[in-house]
Specification:
heterodimer, A: mainly alpha, two-stranded antiparallel sheet, 14 helices, globular, B: alpha/beta, 6-stranded mixed beta sheet
Chain lengths: ~325, ~500
């Protein structure tokens, strides 16, 4: 069977990173024409990227989990907790910046360890486990940062507020995270295993993959990345707030699904997490420029998500109908 | 005539799945339908059961033209189908599964449970499952029993036409006998039975007529009494299947030895496999064969007993460890245990040995493709390319992908659990030859199969497992189907 032009196109259209890149390019061109002075400026793009950097770092971890067939609702709380714990250690206990960051990240790893242990080894459904953890960690965040901690050390603020080539550091951290995990997911056997686990957990186990251990690590990595994002956020703001990261988990899941992940697991690419976040960031940026109210932003994002999934299902149905009879 | 299919065509964009198929089936007739996977049997049955509409052609029921627009319509017309794939809810009871959506109700419109259970008990008795309570939750019974529940569901409709799609793929000879008994009862009641199967022996023991489909064409219909296996196979595949010569590859060294092995569902199991030897495990479904295999492979716990590889005692706690020690396991359930249906052929083949796809210490997709190309050629896997998702391949080709996975892992000991289940005749013999070739290369093979001819064809030694115990051992010379069956089914 020779691949003809049509099947190649349908195949490319199945690849979400391709369609999303195309859509993003289209949006950028279109709105550069509509708002030539406000939209296509270095400052605006820099701001868009800065705004989505924290989300993207969390999204990379979420993509990992969703590829493996699970997800984590506690990441938003972990973002608040890691920044809060860090600030609490520095402000009240005068722990130095490096040690505080390290301790906060270890604490996040521990949260991931608990999530992973209960999901993988005890068999609690990830929805229930991470929903419970979301509440627990939010409570912990409130305990450590209370009404908010300000006046953080200079070197801590420097992590998120310094610039390189005119672009703020969180954007660079985001780019490094995406490149690093793209590399890991395409080039290392360890991370490739998550695709197998997400595609068919039992078959993965019977192919010699240590499924439970891998799941445990997955939750730890996702939690660690949320911790990194939390530290970047509070460093960038120069303050730790117990409310930061509220609702983040759902925004991140939306971005990841737009980026090609499925709740059934087995599909998705790390770059998809970035593209999903970029897409959402652009949409809200454009709506702000167009002075559309924040309420509409949510409504429109919801519609876009449903539309994207519908197109996907239609393409898939056509493809399956064709292949089944071969 | 009860059922007539006239000039049925089914075309999908670019493909003719059925080409001008005409069949006539009388009441009280068992009409076997055979053909390789993809020949159009399932499409034809989907049309009969209302799941799909023919592109053209006519269906006559009692000489009256009918349109079967949906499955409910099929039921109303008296057509019941037992699907190859299970269509039951695992978390509901047997009774609720059988009468799903049409539970008997009392005058208030509420479900009448006592009548529901009473009716179900009657059906279960008819199927030889009187030991099961109608209240039993489906997931607590074996897959063979679940298959019989599926049959019970079809019978509960009191069909005039009963379609059985590979009904024996998941059940043992004991249940098969009961099923055949029921079929002969239904025949007396003038029910027409369409029996789809790959298994020649069943076709010859139960059917009155056989129709063969090949690539959507109706190759012909024969009276079963006037034809034979070779004829049918020739019609199906267009070639004769070679016989296999006797194994001569058994070597003196022992590759695997298990001693007094106990685990969930089996106890006191001892046997050994030499290099180059094929050892068969026979027994009824649920006798504990797969459990033994999984325990050796580290996928199920071992309570006591020892496993030796090359006379060295080993402790296998995980499947990863098993593979490192040189054990591979072709899983019993291809769909749920063997393949990654949404992943492509290449990814499936490297699943158990991803390290083979590394170049310069990094995982490489090009390497995956080149490995996969090699196996596609070597195993004659019918796929347009290595990027095709496995679920779009036929059962036989999917199984070859699973075998390729384990050939790449290159383990010294290979456990093959029902390696030809749901596989068409052509692929089946290719799989036999592959297993044999691996034995000739010095691999030790443990073959688990519910098909006695298969075991007899390939094995040097056959152990019979009954109720979790190894009850009898035969070697190639003294094994016969009757003896094995007797040992496996004795009470």
């Amino acid at each position: 069977m020779k691949p003809n032009y049509h099947t190649v196109l349908t195949q490319r259209l199945q690849d979400r990173t391709f369609t999303l890149s195309l859509t993003i390019t289209g949006i950028v061109i279109l709105f550069s024409i509509i708002y030539p002075t406000l939209f296509p400026t270095f400052d605006n793009f820099r701001q868009v990227l800065l705004n989505l950097s924290v989300e993207t770092i969390v999204a990379v971890g979420m993509m990992l989990l969703m590829i493996s067939g699970s997800f984590d609702l506690s990441v938003g709380s972990v973002v608040a907790f890691s920044g809060g714990l860090c600030a609490w250690l520095m402000y009240f206990h005068h722990v130095n910046v490096c040690a505080a960051v390290l301790i906060a990240l270890l604490a996040c790893l521990f949260i991931g360890l608990i999530n992973g242990y209960f999901v993988a080894y005890i068999g609690i459904n990830p929805l229930i486990q991470t929903l419970a953890m979301m509440g627990i960690v939010r409570g912990l965040a409130l305990m450590v940062s209370g009404a908010g901690i300000q006046a953080l050390p200079y070197w801590f603020n420097a992590i998120g507020q310094s610039r390189l080539f005119g672009i703020q550091m969180p954007v660079w951290y985001m780019i490094i995270t995406v490149i690093l995990f793209t590399f890991l997911f395409t080039k290392t056997v360890f991370f490739r295993r998550y695709y197998y686990i997400g595609s068919n957990e039992k078959a993965a186990m019977l192919s010699g993959i240590a499924v439970k251990k891998m799941k445990l690590y997955g939750f730890m990595i996702a939690s660690l990345l949320a911790g990194v994002a939390g530290i970047l956020l509070s460093s960038r703001l120069g303050a730790a707030m117990s409310t930061s990261g509220e609702g983040l988990e759902l925004r991140v899941i939306t971005a990841v699904i737009l980026g090609g992940a499925s709740l059934n697991g087995g599909t998705g690419k790390i770059t998809g997490a970035l593209l999903g976040a970029v897409f959402m960031g652009l949409v809200s940026n454009i709506m702000t420029i167009a002075r559309i109210s924040g309420y509409w932003q949510q409504i429109i994002l919801g519609i876009i998500l449903i539309a994207a999934i519908c197109v996907d299902l239609l393409l898939k149905k056509e493809r399956i109908a064709k292949l089944k009879v071969e | 005539m009860l059922l007539q299919l006239q000039h049925i065509n089914k075309t999908y964009p670019g493909v003719n799945a059925l080409k001008d198929v005409s069949l006539t089936i009388a009441g009280g007739e068992v009409h076997a339908l055979c053909g390789e996977n993809g020949a159009g049997k399932s499409t034809l049955m989907n049309i009969l059961s209302g799941n799909q509409q023919p592109t053209s052609g006519e269906i006559l029921l009692n000489n009256k033209s009918v349109k079967i627009t949906n499955p409910l319509r099929a039921t109303a017309l008296g057509i019941a189908i037992v699907h190859q794939e299970k269509s039951l809810s695992e978390s509901l009871s047997i009774a609720e599964n059988i009468y799903a959506g049409r539970q008997p109700v009392n005058k208030w419109g509420l479900i009448n449970y006592s009548l529901l259970y009473q009716k179900t008990t009657g059906l279960l008795e008819r199927l030889g499952l009187q030991y099961l309570s109608p209240r039993t939750i489906l997931k607590q019974i074996s897959s063979a029993e679940q298959q019989m529940v599926e049959v019970a569901k079809a019978l509960s409709l009191n069909p005039r036409i009963l379609i059985l799609d590979e009904p024996t793929a998941a059940i043992t000879e004991k249940e098969t006998e009961i099923l055949f008994h029921i079929i002969s009862q239904l025949k007396k009641d003038d029910v027409a039975i369409v029996y789809i199967s790959h298994r020649m022996r069943e076709i010859f023991s139960i059917s009155d007529k056989v129709s063969v489909l090949k690539d959507g064409n109706h190759q012909g219909t024969r009276l079963t009494a006037e034809t034979n296996t070779n004829d049918l196979i020739k019609m199906m595949v267009g070639r004769e299947i070679p016989q296999l010569p006797v194994n001569k590859s058994r070597q003196a060294t022992t590759a695997l030895k298990v001693q007094s092995l106990c685990g969930d569902g089996f106890h006191g199991i001892s046997f050994s496999i030499h290099k180059g030897e094929v050892v068969g495990l026979s027994g009824l479904v649920g006798a504990g064969r797969s459990e033994i295999a999984k325990a050796i492979f580290g996928a199920a716990p071992v309570h006591s007993g020892d496993i030796f590889i090359h006379d060295k005692k080993v402790n296998i706690q995980s499947t990863g460890k098993a593979i490192k020690l040189g054990i591979g396991y072709i899983a019993e359930e291809r769909k749920t245990e063997g393949t990654f249906p949404d992943m492509n052929v290449g990814d499936n083949i490297v699943a158990a040995n991803m390290k083979a796809a590394k170049t310069k210490n990094l995982f490489s997709n090009e390497m995956v493709s080149s490995i996969a190309e090699k196996f596609i050629k070597k195993l004659n896997i019918a796929t347009p390319n290595v990027k095709r998702q496995v679920r779009f391949l036929s059962g036989g080709n999917q199984q070859k992908v699973v075998i390729a996975k384990w050939l790449l892992a290159d383990t010294e000991i290979l456990i093959a659990d029902e390696p030809t289940r749901g596989v068409d005749v052509g692929s089946r013999f290719e799989i036999y030859q592959l297993l044999k070739k691996e034995a000739e290369k010095g691999k030790a093979i443990l073959l688990i199969s519910s098909e006695l001819p298969e075991l007899l064809l390939l094995s040097d030694t056959i152990h019979v497992i009954r109720n979790g115990k190894l009850v009898e051992t035969f070697n190639r010379e003294n094994a016969t189907e009757e003896k094995i069956m007797l040992a496996a089914a004795a009470e």
